[in-house]
Every structure is written in C-alpha cells, then in structure tokens.
Design goal:
Elements: H1 5-101
C-alpha cells in the first residue's frame, strides 16, 4: 500500500497528538483521584451542621425526658406517701377495733 507523501508528513503530528491526549487523560484521572478526598472536606461543613442539629435535638429530647422522669418520681413519691398514710390509718383502725373487741 502506497502512502501519499502528505499523509506521511502528518503521521508524526498524529502520533504526537495521540501521546499528548494520553498524557492529558492520565493527568485528568490523577486529578480526579486527588479531588475525591477533597470533596469530603468540602462537604464537611454540611455534615457538621447536620451532626450538630442532631446533637441539639438529642440534648433537647434528653432534657424533656429528664423533666418527665422528675415529674414521674414526684408522683410516685406522693403515691408512696398516700400508701403509707393509708397503712397507718388501717393499722390504727385495726388496733382500735381490736381494743373495742376486748
């Protein structure tokens, strides 16, 4: 196959262009691999804001639950006091009836 002289003249240019494209593709791939970790750093402020909001929500929820626990403990203490009063009254009435029966 006879190659025209003009095509032979362009062959070195074509090879050089192909090599340059390959180098640029390699550099682009390298830059992409360097960018990936940086994207996490770039997203860090949003992740931090979300984590802080979640923490604030949990702290608020904890405070509300602590207040509910205190309220429940106060109610239990009142019930225990009423039970103790009723036991004393029952004991007093039982002892009075036992005294009356004698």
């Amino acid at each position: 196959m006879n190659t025209p002289p003009a095509a032979k003249a362009h062959w070195p240019v074509l090879c050089a262009a192909h090599e340059k494209v390959d180098r640029l593709k390699s550099q682009a791939s390298s830059l992409e691999s360097q960018i990936r970790p940086l994207l996490r750093v770039l997203d860090a402020p949003d992740a931090f804001a979300q984590a802080k909001k979640k923490l604030d929500d949990l702290v608020t929820q904890n405070k509300a639950q602590s207040a509910e626990v205190e309220n429940t403990e106060a109610l239990i203490a009142k019930i225990c006091q009423r039970v103790a009063d009723l036991r004393r009254r029952i004991a007093a009435e039982t002892s009075c009836r036992a005294d009356d029966a004698q």
